[in-house]
């Protein structure tokens, strides 16, 4: 059992974790870079320590500094949030070696899921459906590569085992391009990720991105908390998310959700996690598992009434998940708009001082943000400054509430992508159908 938590992150998620800790009567320790010294959560925390300059490699990524703060403050557990060190197996290991609790899965589980070949094989072992592809790292023998790709069927995608953030992937349309593409991707993977292993998958041409939220405790209890659709993406970055994923057969979804929970039990997973799938022609294909809390977790919280961050902490305390699968009911529909400090047309980040901020409100409106009037958005970090979440009895009502919430939102001093969200919520296809992962980029290319 622990009573003091070190929050090893910044921005809205630092505040989100702080709130969860307070609700559980836990002491909080936050860290901040010199650029974040005036952040609201710094004054809300029980203790706060400056860990370095704005550059995150010298502050939020500085493992030694974080462990030092844990020691000095007497924190007994570390919550990594998302990004930064949240999926760094070596950090999770160091935290445990220092006698602390890592609020998340074991370093071994993080490591397996960080290797896409190992992750695929772990999923196949639990009958989680995967994209047809190679089970092992590709060799260099031309004829066996050709035979494998022909069997799967072109187009195929070559992916780095250690890839992440949408990098280390190459689509191959014709057999004549295959060998060169494999070699090039291996070389790129070696340079970018320090691991040249690549594998091959069928390239799906018009999939949706649907993911399943899971929680799993140290007593072998694993539960899935429903689905999210995050198909609206630009450059592999999610822009607008929703729960539940619309227009998916509920029996099919239940079958996949149960497989995900089963996979958690099989690997002894502990904490919250997300299974990401591509969904095409009524079939799910696993692509990766995120072993951390995700940006879009509030749409699941608001539709299930379950506080996932509190649950992460309770699981790390060794507690049993206090409900059963049958108790998880998805009520209504939720949307989340990621508000980024960026030019809505060029997408260039727009750091600077916020001169005015007024958040929307009303029943079924949630705003997760650390910003306030006078806050300075630093160029050093992610441009996401707020998340607006709406909840309605159905998708239509959630959309209407979001339109109003965006109209109510006042953000001045910097440009933001609020106008982009407003136009997305006026797009008939988005409002009435389910779009694929390429839809937003196509829409943007047509509008220039
Ligand atoms: P990363 O870890 O870099 O995010 P993912 O495996 O999650 O890598 O893939 C990122 C994105 O690449 C997916 O969201 C999808 O847009 C695209 N992608 C990956 N695999 C495939 C595939 N087999 N077919 C079509 N698109 C794919």
TrEMBL record:
What's the catalysed reaction?
N(6)-biotinyl-L-lysyl-[protein] + hydrogencarbonate + ATP = N(6)-carboxybiotinyl-L-lysyl-[protein] + ADP + phosphate + H(+)
Top EC category: ligase
User: Is Protease included in the keywords of this UniProt record?
Assistant: no
Kindly state which keywords UniProt assigns to this record, in alphabetical order: ATP-binding, Biotin, Fatty acid biosynthesis, Fatty acid metabolism, Ligase, Lipid biosynthesis, Lipid metabolism, Magnesium, Metal-binding, Nucleotide-binding
Pathway recorded for this protein: Lipid metabolism; malonyl-CoA biosynthesis; malonyl-CoA from acetyl-CoA: step 1/1
One of its GO biological process terms is:
fatty acid biosynthetic process
EC number(s) from the headed UniProt entry: 6.3.4.14
Q: Which residue numbers delimit the Biotin carboxylation domain?
A: 1-445
What sequence ranges are listed for the domain ATP-grasp?
120-317
One Pfam family name is Biotin_carb_N
Concerning SUPFAM superfamilies, the annotation shows: Glutathione synthetase ATP-binding domain-like, PreATP-grasp domain, Rudiment single hybrid motif
GO MF annotations in UniProt: ATP binding; biotin carboxylase activity; metal ion binding
Q: Which InterPro entries match?
A: ACC_Biotin_Carboxylase (IPR051602), Acetyl_CoA_COase_biotin_COase (IPR004549), ATP-grasp (IPR011761), ATP_grasp_subdomain_1 (IPR013815), BC-like_N (IPR005481), Biotin_carboxylation_dom (IPR011764), Biotin_COase_C (IPR005482), CPAse_ATP-bd (IPR005479)
What NCBIfam families does this protein map onto?
A: accC, PRK08591.1
Q: What is the annotated role of this protein in its UniProt record?
A: This protein is a component of the acetyl coenzyme A carboxylase complex; first, biotin carboxylase catalyzes the carboxylation of the carrier protein and then the transcarboxylase transfers the carboxyl group to form malonyl-CoA.
Subunit comment for this entry? Acetyl-CoA carboxylase is a heterohexamer of biotin carboxyl carrier protein, biotin carboxylase and the two subunits of carboxyl transferase in a 2:2 complex.
Q: What is this protein called?
A: Biotin carboxylase
């Amino acid at each position: 059992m622990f009573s003091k938590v070190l929050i090893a992150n910044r921005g809205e998620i630092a505040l989100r974790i702080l709130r969860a800790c307070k609700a559980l009567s836990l002491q909080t320790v936050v860290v901040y870079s010199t650029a974040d010294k005036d952040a609201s959560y710094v004054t809300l925390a029980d203790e706060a320590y400056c860990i370095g300059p704005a550059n995150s490699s010298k502050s939020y990524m500085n493992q030694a500094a974080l462990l030092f703060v844990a020691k000095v403050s007497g924190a007994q557990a570390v919550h990594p949030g998302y990004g930064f060190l949240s999926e760094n197996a070596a950090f999770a290991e160091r935290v445990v070696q220092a006698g602390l609790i890592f609020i998340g899965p074991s370093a071994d589980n993080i490591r397996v899921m960080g290797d896409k070949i190992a992750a695929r094989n772990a999923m196949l072992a639990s009958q989680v459906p995967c994209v047809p592809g190679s089970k092992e790292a590709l060799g260099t023998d031309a004829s066996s590569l050709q035979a494998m790709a022909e069997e799967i069927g072109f187009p195929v995608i070559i992916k780095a085992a250690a890839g992440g953030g949408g990098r280390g992937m190459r689509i191959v349309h014709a057999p004549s391009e295959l060998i060169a593409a494999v070699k090039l991707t291996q070389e790129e993977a070696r340079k970018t990720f320090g691991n040249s292993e690549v594998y091959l998958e069928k390239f799906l041409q018009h999939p949706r991105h649907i993911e399943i939220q899971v929680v799993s405790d140290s007593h072998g209890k694993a539960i899935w908390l429903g689905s999210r659709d995050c198909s609206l993406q630009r450059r592999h970055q999610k822009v607008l998310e929703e729960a539940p994923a619309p227009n998916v057969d509920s029996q099919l979804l239940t079958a996949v959700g149960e497989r995900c929970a089963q996979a958690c039990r099989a690997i002894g997973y502990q904490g919250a996690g997300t299974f990401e799938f591509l969904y095409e022609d009524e079939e799910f294909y696993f692509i990766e598992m995120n072993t951390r809390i995700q940006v879009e977790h509030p749409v699941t919280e608001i539709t299930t009434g379950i506080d996932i961050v509190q649950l992460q902490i309770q699981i790390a305390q060794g507690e049993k998940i206090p409900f059963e699968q049958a108790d998880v009911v998805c009520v209504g529909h939720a949307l989340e708009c990621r508000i980024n400090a960026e030019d809505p047309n060029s997408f260039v980040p727009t750091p600077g001082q916020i001169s005015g901020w007024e958040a929307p409100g009303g029943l079924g409106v949630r705003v997760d943000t650390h910003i306030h009037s006078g806050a300075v958005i630093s160029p050093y970090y992610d441009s996401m400054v707020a998340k607006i979440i709406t909840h309605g009895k159905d998708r239509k009502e959630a959309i209407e509430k979001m339109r109003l919430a965006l109209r109510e939102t006042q953000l001045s001093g910097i440009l933001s992508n609020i106008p982009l969200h407003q136009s997305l919520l006026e797009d008939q296809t988005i409002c009435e159908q389910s779009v694929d992962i390429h839809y937003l980029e196509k829409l943007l290319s047509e509008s220039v």
